[in-house]
Design a protein that fits this description.
With about 325 residues, this protein is of the alpha/beta class. Among the domains are: about 150 residues; about 45 residues. Helix 4 links the parallel strand 6 and strand 7. Helix 1 runs antiparallel to helix 7, helix 5 runs antiparallel to helix 6 and helix 13 runs antiparallel to helix 14. The N and C termini lie far apart (about 55 Å).
């Protein structure tokens, strides 16, 4: 499951949810903009950064990492990336926090004591498996908890949250965003189901029309194309079927490198198929030519076919 994509999409679309998760509910998340800036000189990209307006110099920067596996060098790298960012971008803000969200506490490798000043003053840690399970939790905590649940648990709890969102009085845009996030989590937990089946299962509208779905497809498209395992799922086939014609019919899409890559890949596959078909025709012709009295050498030269292949066919058919 691509938990990272969903987690950062949650922060991007609903920054106030992030501040609820880390317990800073007095912060106005709406003044922040989310980004994943590239630090070019080191060839890495920060996973998540919430940045206030330049004039809000007293509002902190929030560097965000979701960590779902053990990494002995995590804090060395994370703090290093932050300071390289400061050097390259020179933000006007004075205060900053490094926020690490672990799916469970057991993933954390404690930072070296050399970082004590940073950990005491700038580090905030959240453990999703330790968020209290209470009926009156905020939607932010409830959705964050969905990320670490099993598929069946996520489906059951997701349905409860969907009914909760529908029953609460909030603006339509907010509700659509929250519903899309819930649907997005289930989307990744059930990769063997088609989009239509997922939509029916959750009793929701067309997930393909949401901004979250478009973002997921955009961020994972190359990974989808490169993953043999994912290509075998009905979800992948459903996505391909739904988007193929639309992409091919779009003049704008035809100008993209992705389209060119697809065309080149298709051309190579067709060329390989033609070569295989030609090879098969030649193989089928070998016994017929040998029966006419031609030698294996002559058949090989006549068909422009590898001599060893001709010899093997001759031995197998005792010609």
């Amino acid at each position: 499951m691509k938990t990272d994509i969903l987690f950062y999409e949650l922060i991007k679309q609903l920054p106030n949810f992030f501040f609820e998760i880390i317990g800073q509910t007095d912060i106005d998340g709406n003044i922040y903009s989310f980004s994943a800036p590239e630090v070019k000189q080191q060839s890495f990209r920060l996973d998540g950064l919430l940045v206030p307006p330049d004039e809000a110099i007293d509002s902190p920067l929030y560097f965000i990492e979701l960590q779902t596996y053990k990494d002995e060098e995590f804090y060395d790298r994370f703090f290093g990336e932050i300071f390289v960012y400061f050097r390259q971008y020179r933000p006007p803000q004075t205060h900053w926090y490094a926020v690490v969200v672990y799916d469970r506490r057991s993933r954390e490798v404690l930072p070296h004591p050399r970082y004590r000043v940073l950990t005491e003053n700038h580090l905030l840690r959240v453990y999703l498996d330790e968020l209290e399970d209470e009926d009156n939790d905020s939607l932010a905590i409830e959705i964050a908890r969905l990320l670490i649940k099993s598929p069946q648990e996520a489906l059951s709890r997701g349905r409860v949250l969907i009914e909760r969102v529908r029953s609460e009085e909030s603006d339509d845009k907010f509700n659509r965003t929250v519903l899309a996030l819930i649907q997005g989590i289930i989307f990744y937990k059930f990769p063997s189901l088609t989009l239509a089946e997922l939509e029916t299962m959750l009793d929701l509208g067309n997930f393909r029309q949401t901004r979250l779905y478009q973002s997921i497809v955009e961020q994972t498209r190359q990974e989808m194309l490169d993953s043999d395992e994912f290509r075998q799922t009905s979800l992948y086939q459903s996505i391909v079927e739904q988007t193929r014609q639309e992409m091919l019919d779009s003049d704008e899409f035809r100008q993209t490198s992705l389209y060119q890559s697809i065309v080149e890949q298709t051309r190579q596959e067709m060329s390989q198929q033609i070569q295989e078909q030609e090879e098969q025709v030649k193989v089928e012709a070998v016994p017929k030519l040998l029966k006419t009295g031609l030698s294996v050498q002559q058949v090989s030269e006549c068909l422009n076919l590898n001599l060893e292949i001709v010899k093997k066919i001759a031995r197998e058919q005792q010609l």
